Amino acid sequence: MVLDSPRRNNRSIEGGDSSRQRRRLVPWRGTSYLGGVMLLALLVAACGATSTPVSSANSARLKAVLAASPKGFHLANYIQQAILHNDKLTIYVDYYAPALAFAAPLRAGVAEAAKQLGVDASVVGPTSGTAGGQVSQLETIIAAHQIDGIAITAASDSALNPVIAKAYNAGIPVISVNSDDPGSKQMAYVGQQLVPSGQAAGHELVKLLHGRKGKVVVFSLATGAGWSQSRMQGFMDAVRGAGLDIVGPVNTGTDPTTGYSAVASTMTGNTNAVAIVSLDCCSLDLAAEWVAQSHLATKPIVVGFDILAATKSYIESGVIQATVTQNAPLQGYWAVKDLAEYLLHGTPIHNVNTGEHIVTSANVRSTAAT
């Protein structure tokens, strides 16, 4: 179920070290900070030499973290103990489809942040790539009391909102990354501003069409996901009044084989489309593959999101005309950094906008694939 396992085994989902078991013995949520420290001192004295003493520096660190916590959020007891005993933090970035190519640059950013900040951080996710699989995995993670923070890219806002609330109510710091979910109990969002990014794609398409009107087919690998719907909203805002007949968004799913079949079958019935728009990295490359293999006299304009190695090649060859990038490594990096700095230094968790950048044939050679 988990693609990337943590670097050490003693805090995996399946089990934990003795210090984790020890921390779960301190039931002081809802008490004052001083009262909690007094109770902890009593338990340390009772446990004798097997317990690690609490330093004044770690007590001050916990006080700072609690002071920086959002109103109404009560940090889990076991995480408070991790801070008091200066245990190495574990942070998960839960990406709903970790087999997708986009997960690779996200993972690189997570690894860089873990190295810089001295925490354990891993990209995890369900092998099924489904909302149900993601919910089931997160339920297991929350119940295990083995992580100190989690960043989530939701497969579906409506499906994930209850489990995000469960993490929050359990006292686990939880944020969204890559896909904003403002209707949930997320404590912050790290990623691209999705509606404006959709507007950027729409404006670029209108510019590339030079006044041409007609059918535009839109693809997404997850039409029910919040990121997809927000980008679609922005795109529709931008092309309104341009005389375009929008078909879709058509769901391709996360499997490349079935995704290509969805693109091919849709385009077979829409060979007169003036443009194809993808709302993500992976359906973009599938659409470009179809265009490259087609024998159409007039090829459609292709606009999408992200820039994988294949995307860059398709731009260089003229199959894709433009893509809106979002800096996946930076999203992974800041997802870990936002949570870690809150727990390490009491820095308030905050939104991070990783921005957008339009890549065309004019600047593709100076843009790195992610």
Give a topology summary:
Layout: H1 18-23, H2 33-47, H3 56-68, H4 77-84, E1 90-95, H5 103-117, E2 120-124, H6 131-144, E3 149-153, H7 157-169, E4 174-177, E5 189-191, H8 194-209, E6 214-220, H9 226-239, E7 244-251, H10 256-268, E8 275-278, H11 281-293, E9 301-305, H12 309-316, E10 322-325, H13 328-345, E11 352-353, E12 357-359
Describe the structure in your own words.
This protein is of the alpha/beta class and 370 residues long. The strands form two sheets. The protein has a six-stranded parallel sheet. It has a six-stranded mixed sheet with strand order 7-6-8-9-10-12, sandwiched between helices. Helix 5 runs parallel beside helix 13, helix 8 packs across helix 9 and helix 10 packs across helix 11. It starts with 17 loop residues before the first helix and ends in an 11-residue tail after the last strand. The N terminus is likely disordered.
Protein traits:
6-stranded parallel β-sheet, disordered N terminus, 6-stranded mixed β-sheet, 370 residues, alpha/beta
